[in-house]
Design brief:
Layout (H helix, E strand, L loop, with lengths): L10 E6 L9 H6 L18 H10 L11 H11 L1 H10 L3 E7 L10 H8 L3 E6 H10 L7 H13 L2 E6 L1 H5 L10 H18 L7 H18 L3 E5 L17 H9 L4 E5 L4 H10 L3 E3 L4 H5 L3 H8 L18 H24 L5 H19 L6
Parallel strand pairs: 1-2, 2-3, 3-4, 4-5, 5-6, 6-7
Helix pairs in contact: 2-15, 4-15, 6-7, 7-10, 14-15
Bound molecules: zinc ion (ZN).
Length: 381
């Protein structure tokens, strides 16, 4: 009989990003673990928050420093080792089965998905961000009249090599929008207005709800045909959101429509709506969710959020994600805090006689990799 929960399983990180190959100095390093547009106020540092604390506590030893080495000492050591060596150390120490990489966010500043697989020494797969493809197509000089079909064709082409699509509808226009598919004429009109504005401002950021709705529905059709999940960003994860309107229960009509199509929806990050996400996973057959990213940002309190995610959410619907972006430290911490958090919660369940190690082990196996392997075409381990 095993005497402890097996938490050292290989994880499928179903939502993560590339890491920076740049040599990051004191300012640059801190900017990479801030969600804000601005640096911390004069006289303070990013190390003075839970994520800064866990970087010092758990990451410093991998750079040959004492646990809780100062932030200054940490950044100096990181520069001395070089970004390539630092990234290799953290990614190979993260116990990953495979990485599902969102390639649509600041992709010129970070490593691509193939390079990430090489650094981690593990299989990597691409998840294509719908809105990023819309912006790429718009920049080609396509006419507004041709845009709806050109966008759909390009998205389908990109999806051919991907294991999922992702939408950031909540970042750009919130979930409190009309969730029906727009008519083609409406999309053409909206594209015309977008192109005129973008050409003048020289900024192609897509913020038009009609075009984003078009992207959602052509994306949904592709996911349906290719049998791949649609990832939906929820809540925490970007500075430019109206948090209250990023509650995924506003998106019930769209979720219900995709349930009929048998398209899996994976709700990403979810904080502070992890309870709503768990509830949606109970109601809808096609809903999955994770509490990635926020585990890093809450550090010592991450097990509490994990506990909320486990309150009523199905064990068969929760997924593991680090949502690491930019810093390889975030890959390492994501898995570290996941393993610590789930063990803390399940040890409590065992102590209170809700289950034994056998059931706890099964719950860990499901969330660590088995749920993701069931819905994403990532192959066998
Ligand atoms: Zn992300």
């Amino acid at each position: 009989m095993p005497t402890d929960i097996a938490i050292d399983l290989k994880l499928i990180d179903h939502h993560c990003h590339g890491v920076s190959p740049a040599e990051l100095d004191w300012k640059g390093f801190q900017a990479m673990f801030s969600e804000s547009y601005l640096p911390p106020p004069e006289g303070t540092t990013e190390f003075q928050k839970p994520l800064g604390l866990v970087i010092r506590r758990f990451c410093a030893p991998l750079l040959d420093l004492e646990p809780l080495a100062s932030g200054q000492a940490y950044v100096e050591r990181r520069l001395a080792l070089g970004a390539a060596e630092v990234n290799r150390r953290f990614l190979t120490a993260s116990g990953l089965d495979s990485l599902l990489i969102d390639t649509g966010h600041r992709s010129n500043a970070i490593l691509g998905w193939q390079e990430m697989g090489k650094v981690a020494g593990r299989p990597a797969h691409e998840v294509v961000r719908i809105e990023a493809v819309a912006e790429e197509v718009a920049k080609t000089g396509v006419s507004a009249a041709d845009f709806p079909d050109a966008f759909a064709a390009e998205l389908d082409k990109r999806a051919a090599g991907a294991v999922g699509l992702k939408t950031i509808v909540a970042y750009r226009v919130t979930f409190k929008i009309d969730q029906s598919a727009p008519e083609k004429g409406e999309v053409v009109k909206a594209a015309g207005a977008w192109f005129a504005k973008a050409a003048e401002a020289k900024r192609w950021r897509l913020e038009d709800a009609t075009i984003i709705r078009h992207g959602l529905w052509i994306g949904a059709e592709i996911c349906r045909a290719r049998k791949i999940p649609l990832q939906v960003h929820v809540g925490f994860g970007d500075p430019d959101i109206y948090m209250h309107a990023c509650d995924p229960t506003h998106f019930t009509d769209f979720i219900a429509a995709l349930e009929k199509w048998k398209v899996a929806i994976t709700l990403l990050h979810c904080y502070p709506f992890q309870r709503e996400a768990g509830w949606l996973s109970e109601i809808f057959q096609n809903v999955y969710y994770d509490v990635g990213c926020i585990q890093n940002y809450t550090g010592p309190s991450s097990a509490d959020i994990f506990g909320e995610a486990l309150e009523m959410g199905k064990f068969s619907k929760q997924l593991y994600s680090s949502d690491a972006f930019g810093l390889s430290e975030l890959y390492y911490l994501g898995q570290k805090l996941f393993r610590k958090g789930i063990k803390q919660r399940l040890d409590r369940w065992i102590a209170e006689d809700f289950c034994t190690i056998k059931e706890a082990d099964e719950i860990v196996r499901l969330i660590a990799a088995e749920n993701a392997r069931r819905i994403y075409p990532v192959g066998e381990p």
